[in-house]
Amino acid sequence: MKRVLVMGGAGYIGSHTVQHLLNNGYEVVVADNLIYGHREAVDPRATFVRADLLEPASLAQVFKQYPVDAVVHFAAFAYVGESVTAPEKYYFNNVIGTINLLHAMLVHGVKKIVFSSTCATYGEPHYTPIDEKHPQNPINPYGRTKLMIEQIFADYRRAYGLKHIALRYFNAAGAAADGSIGESHTPETHLIPLVLQAIRGERPEISVFGTDYDTPDGTCVRDYIHVEDLALAHRLALEKLEEYSGCINLGTGLGSSVKEIIRAAEKVSGRACPVKYAPRRAGDPAQLFADNKKAQEILGWQPRYTDIAEIIRTAWNWEQNRRY
Ligand code: UDP
Question: Is the pLDDT of residue 1 over 80?
Fold first, then answer.
């Protein structure tokens, strides 16, 4: 049996990946500092340890106590706006934290890592769909931290034989089909949960950031990828590390506009969403969607959820019965 350490396994995408790995015969150790993660999100079949990327002694202890074959690394701060006002927090946690993690891995002879990267490493798109050869010019510190880590991996591969796959996610969305876990951020900034919470009356309305973009209906277009499809890709990446290192996009290749998301959420819930039209949010490109051919070719991965209404249905189910 393979034993994997999931750093940040109490977070949104991490917790779904933990569940998927356990369902597929992996033994899973979850390490999380629980700053943003939820202890309740960690599958009880996993071993949980509290550890922090900025406390090297806590990392060393995890590797000493639990020998693992590979690491899946989700632990990061991920609020774009905050990364602009508090970049130090992001460079410390995301970049230095990952260097600490890699150090602990190398000391303990662990040379395989699957990493949460992001389409934010591309910055303003020059063309869509975005493939992995698209230039990387992130426009905020968050995106820069992820790009720096990708570059560090390449250096560590050459010098220390690190095997790495960085998965560049587009917009993660949805919840576990069985309703057991889902998305829960404090504060919440993502479109789909905000729309669903507005529908439920937990927020006064959803603000649509910009209606004058150069898109079919004037609102921004994004590629929403179901969190269980992301989880599957992490397992496939773990299984490919022996033969491949590099970066792979994870998106459906399809775009949905903000207005389309609101309409789909209204249909799924059968209720109206209160909407307010607001100015553009700084740093939002008009359209982002993935060319996902490389994920198909290298990982043999295909998204199972390609209908945005189905993705929203899982999120709606979670919003109505959430545990955390
Ligand atoms: N968005 C919006 N209102 C909100 C939150 C988001 O109109 O309250 C828009 C945002 O401008 C973007 C899309 O929804 O075009 C997705 O935003 P989100 O923050 O979920 O993800 P991002 O694409 O920024 O990673």
Answer: no
Instruction: Using alpha carbons only, give the angle 98, 281, 287 rounded to the nearest 5 degrees.
Output: 80
Confidence (pTM): 0.98
Chain centroid offset of residue 261 CA: 19
- Write the residue with the smallest CA distance to atom 15 of ligand 1: 220
Q: How far is the centre of ligand 1, averaged over its atoms, from the C-alpha of 114 (Å)?
A: 26
- Catalytic entry in 122, 142, 224, 305: 142
> Quick one: tokens of 298?
């290298």
Helix (H, G, I), strand (E, B) or coil at 128: coil
Active-site residue, 142 included: yes
Q: Is the pLDDT of residue 283 over 90?
A: no
Cβ–Cβ < 8 Å for 225, 183: no
pLDDT tens, 23-33? Answer: 999 999 999 99
pLDDT tens, residue by residue, 63-94: 999 999 999 999 999 999 999 999 999 999 99
Asked if pLDDT for residue 190 goes beyond 90, the answer is yes
> How far, CA to CA in Å, does 132 sit from each of 3, 127, 226, 268?
30, 12, 20, 34
Question: Which residue out of 128, 183, 191 has the highest number of ligand 1 atoms within 8 Å of its CB and is therefore the one to mutate?
Answer: 191
Centre of ligand 1 from the C-alpha of residue 209, in Å: 7
Cα-based torsion angle of the residue sequence 266, 269, 271, 275 in order, rounded to the nearest 10 degrees = -40
